């Protein structure tokens, strides 16, 4: 069984989409004229029709041969030709005086005028009414299947062929019989498939240009055109000829099928060859010129109706898709995390494009919903997709075509439609379809190797037309053109969402960068202030006599008290904190005699924002007083008290006495700005600063919304803090590391030396320091320690691999960090002790005291 429209002979055409057989069928004759209507060529059978041989015609003007009326009618028709492939027709035209009437067609070919004629049938039906009736029957069909079927029935009723088929081309060039109207008893071709090689691309292009092609008798002897070639050696281009002769290969096809005559009418949709009306008759048959013309007009109307139906279906489908697209855009606008939710995204997208699973690849991360390949297979698919056309939706019903190893997971995901939503490196939303194992009915084996026939190896007609079935595996249901267009629409929506999120992220990054620059500047200022304060502490603490060890101890205690005061801003910062603890921490860094700062007021807790603000304010008040005010002189003192006013606001009063005379600052520094503006600006309260010569006097009002009642403290009872007052000495466990070999992992040499000194003071038998993960692991394997302290952050790495190794060996260890409570070890180490930097003898000792027992020293 062969293609209903069997291949044409393209052996002389190379790659050009034209048909150049220098012969016509004997049912009519052909005359070729120059632009000034001078006869240059003619078919060899002209004498049979008009009584003049070709040699009698060459070089003569047409008006010398045909009647003036015939020439007039032909010239008028020629003026109507528009476009490269136009053909005009004329009916019942008498060319020779007293001769018979002809039906003729006229077209241009290579700058020549081609006239083809065959004896008139004498039919004069109502062609317009006939086509209108045929189309009205089409319009009554409910679906595409019945539409195709009715089209085949109408063509068969018009032309009388034994079999009329509607033959549709697929995207890959293969074809399928989708409708059939046939005489009973001759079998059916319905549903048969034909490989693309049956009708090559050049032939399909020819069908697109010339809508109707007739073979009246497969046994007819072709009539040659004389001369065969012009003065340039070129044959006549018969691409648009109605009488064009037939290639021997095509004749062999038809004879093998038992077909005696055939006719094909092209179905053109949206400017492309959609398919054909393929007509077969099992004996010679020549429909009249008029009926063939009517059938061509009907095919054009059929094509228009088909295009309208397809477009209507597409418009409705794409309208629903746009609604889904709007729904997607609206939903993500209110919750951008939905873009990373594959279940929600899959539910939205598969309402527009049916699929079995959805995979999302975004920023190197993946998420799945439904039936999808594994993560590693998905990664390989994404790499393969990156090699496809950039910025376009890609669809295939066979993933194996881009990924050879895809057969391994074809049962769950055989086809895909990929929607790129970013540029390189690409991000994708991929719809997957499961394998659809089905049987395809081919008209003969499509994989049959090329055989040499009597007409050469180019195109060999099959000699066996038995139905051949192929089991197709590894393929999914194909994605349609409409679904791909919808995917492009969804892609535009997804890209709009991604770009908007990118713009928001960019704006957030810019804001973050600006905040970071401000914080860096402030940090730089603070570091310089802290270094200045440390220098001042050292200078102010110079002893007039005594042991240098006492001096180091005093300095060490004050510096760590200052560090703890700074930690008050962040330590437990998302819960209310006592104002008293803040003052204790700040005072402890500067004042030996705690009676010099007198605190008066009931216990009160500040919410995090107010607590941070007041920490800065109190810090500046204490440091300024220590530098310039009452705390800088012997006998000077500060009274700090607070109470609530009638509105419930907290009023804090700071009064200095006994210090040097006070004068207003000549330059307003950052510290002065903090004192005067922080409470009004950050808290919506007020601040009054009075530079009284007898001592600085400041009053602050903090609105009630920033206050919290102390939890669990009965009225009238003094508050008890959950830890000892900051700055007051605490008992240090003695020699908690006695007999232990300790490993200290720290990437800063100065800090490592300080930690090493602390470990030795706590009685460690040996201390080894390491700055890298590799160095620490090497030491553990060669000289196993008995205990370890690991700084979590080591430059651009962390110490968790070391912790994993120590845990395997059951060696106790603690973590250390300068990040406070923000440090979050992985789950397997979440319960480990963490020492907050800076290291002190007290905090290291307490941590190890809870971790290990001293090792008794042995003597030989």
Helix content: 25-40%
Question: What is the residue-averaged pLDDT?
Answer: 80
**What is the number of E strands?**
35
Question: End-to-end span in angstroms?
Answer: 104 Å
CATH level-1 class of the domain at 548-708: Alpha Beta
Strand line-up of the largest beta sheet: 1-11-3-2-6-5-4
- Runs in which pLDDT lies below 50 for 5 or more consecutive residues are 6-20, 455-460, 462-466, 713-730
Helical stretch tally: 19
CATH superfamily of the domain at 548-708: Histidine kinase-like ATPase, C-terminal domain
Q: Which shape, going by the Cα principal axes? A: elongated
Proportion of beta-strand residues:
15-25%
Structural class: alpha+beta
Q: Rg from C-alpha positions?
A: 48 Å
Main sheet: strands, sense, barrel: 7 strands, antiparallel
> What is the architecture of the domain at 548-708 at the second tier of CATH?
2-Layer Sandwich
Looking at CATH, which topology of the domain at 548-708 would you report?
Answer: Heat Shock Protein 90
Which properties best describe this structure?
Heat Shock Protein 90, Beta-Lactamase, 860 residues, alpha+beta, single chain, six-stranded antiparallel beta sheet, seven-stranded antiparallel beta sheet
What would your notes on this structure say?
With 860 residues, the protein is of the alpha+beta class. Among the domains are: 127-214 and 248-311, GAF domain (Beta-Lactamase, 2-Layer Sandwich); 335-437 and 473-501, PHY domain (Beta-Lactamase, 2-Layer Sandwich), CATH 3.30.450; 548-708, Heat Shock Protein 90; 741-849, 3-Layer(aba) Sandwich (Rossmann fold), CATH 3.40.50. It has 19 helices and 35 strands. A hairpin with a 2-residue loop joins strand 12 and strand 13. The model is unreliable at 6-20, 455-460, 462-466 and 713-730 (pLDDT under 50).
């Amino acid at each position: 069984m062969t293609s209903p429209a069997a291949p044409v002979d393209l052996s002389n055409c190379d790659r050009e989409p034209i048909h150049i057989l220098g012969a016509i069928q004997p049912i009519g004759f052909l005359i070729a004229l120059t632009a000034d209507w001078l006869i240059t060529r003619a078919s060899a059978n002209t004498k049979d029709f008009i009584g003049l041989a070709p040699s009698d015609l060459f070089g003569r003007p047409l008006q010398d041969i045909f009647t003036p009326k015939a020439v007039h009618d032909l010239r008028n028709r020629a003026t109507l030709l528009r476009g490269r492939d136009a053909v005009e027709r004329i009916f019942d035209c008498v060319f020779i005086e007293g001769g018979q009437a002809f039906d003729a067609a006229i077209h241009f070919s290579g700058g020549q005028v081609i006239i083809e004629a065959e004896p008139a049938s004498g039919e004069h039906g109502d062609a317009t009414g006939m086509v209108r009736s045929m189309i009205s029957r089409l319009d009554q069909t409910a679906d595409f299947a019945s539409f195709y079927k009715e089209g085949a029935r109408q063509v068969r009723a018009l032309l009388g062929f034994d079999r009329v088929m509607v033959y549709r081309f697929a995207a890959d060039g293969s074809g399928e019989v989708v409708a059939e109207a046939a005489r009973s008893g001759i079998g059916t071709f319905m549903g048969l498939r034909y490989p693309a090689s049956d009708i090559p691309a050049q032939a399909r292009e020819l069908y697109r240009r010339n809508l109707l092609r007739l073979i009246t008798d497969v046994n007819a002897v072709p009539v040659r055109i004389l001369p065969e070639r012009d003065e340039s050696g070129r044959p006549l281009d018969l691409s648009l000829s109605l009488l064009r002769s037939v290639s021997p290969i095509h004749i062999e096809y038809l004879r093998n099928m038992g077909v005696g005559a055939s006719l094909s009418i092209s179905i053109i949709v949206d400017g492309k060859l959609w398919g054909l009306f393929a007509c077969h008759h099992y004996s010679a048959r020549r429909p009249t010129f008029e009926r063939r013309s009517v059938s061509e007009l009907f095919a054009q109307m059929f094509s228009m109706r088909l295009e309208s139906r397809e477009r209507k279906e597409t418009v409705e489908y794409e309208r629903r898709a746009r609604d889904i697209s709007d729904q997607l855009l609206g939903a993500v606008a209110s919750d951008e995390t939905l873009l990373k939710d594959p279940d929600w995204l899959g539910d939205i997208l598969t309402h527009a494009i049916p699929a079995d699973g959805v995979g999302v690849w975004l920023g190197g991360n993946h998420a799945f919903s439904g039936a999808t390949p594994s993560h590693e297979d998905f990664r390989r698919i994404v790499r393969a997709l990156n090699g496809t056309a950039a910025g376009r939706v890609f669809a295939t019903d066979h993933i194996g075509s881009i990924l050879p190893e895809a057969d391994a997971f074809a049962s769950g995901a055989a086809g895909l439609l990929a929607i790129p939503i970013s540029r390189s490196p690409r991000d994708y939303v991929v719809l997957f379809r499961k394998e659809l194992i089905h049987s395809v009915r081919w008209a003969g084996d499509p994989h049959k190797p090329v055989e040499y026939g009597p007409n050469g190896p180019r195109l060999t007609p099959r000699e066996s037309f038995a139905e051949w079935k192929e089991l197709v595996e590894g393929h999914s249901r194909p994605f349609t053109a409409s679904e791909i267009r919808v995917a492009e629409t969804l892609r535009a929506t997804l890209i709009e969402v991604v770009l908007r999120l990118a713009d928001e992220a960019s704006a957030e990054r810019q804001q973050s960068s600006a905040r970071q620059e401000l914080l860096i500047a402030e940090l730089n200022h603070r570091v310089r202030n802290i270094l200045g304060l440390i220098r001042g502490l050292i200078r102010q603490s110079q002893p007039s006599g005594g042991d240098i060890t006492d001096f180091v101890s005093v300095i060490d205690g004050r510096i760590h008290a200052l560090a703890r005061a700074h930690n008050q801003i962040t330590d437990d910062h998302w819960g209310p904190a006592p104002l008293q603890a803040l003052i204790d921490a700040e005072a402890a860094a500067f004042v030996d005699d705690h009676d010099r700062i007198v605190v008066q007021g009931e216990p009160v807790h500040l919410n995090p924002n107010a607590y941070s603000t007041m920490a800065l304010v109190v810090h500046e008040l204490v440091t300024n007083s220590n530098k310039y005010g009452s705390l800088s002189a012997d006998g000077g003192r500060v009274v700090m008290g607070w109470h609530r006013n009638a509105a419930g606001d907290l009023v804090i009063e700071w009064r200095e006495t006994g210090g040097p005379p006070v004068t207003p600052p000549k330059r307003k520094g950052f510290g002065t700005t903090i004192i005067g503006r922080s409470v009004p600006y950050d808290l919506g309260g007020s601040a009054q600063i009075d530079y009284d010569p007898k001592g600085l006097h400041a009053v602050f009002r903090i609105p009630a919304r920033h206050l919290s009642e102390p939890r669990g403290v009965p009225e009238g009872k003094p508050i008890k803090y959950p830890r000892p007052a900051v700055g007051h000495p605490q008992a240090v466990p003695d020699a908690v590391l006695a007999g232990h070999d300790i490993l200290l992992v720290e990437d800063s040499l100065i800090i490592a030396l300080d930690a090493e000194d602390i470990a030795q003071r706590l009685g460690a038998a040996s201390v080894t320091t390491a700055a890298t993960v590799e160095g620490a692991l090497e030491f553990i394997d060669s000289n196993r320690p008995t205990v370890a302290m690991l700084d979590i952050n080591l430059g651009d790495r962390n110490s968790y691999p070391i912790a994993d190794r120590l845990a395997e060996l059951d060696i106790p260890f603690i973590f250390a960090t300068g990040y406070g409570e923000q440090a979050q070890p992985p789950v397997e180490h979440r319960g480990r002790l963490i020492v907050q930097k800076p290291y002190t003898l007290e905090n290291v000792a307490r941590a190890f005291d809870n971790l290990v027992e001293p090792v008794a020293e042995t003597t030989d």
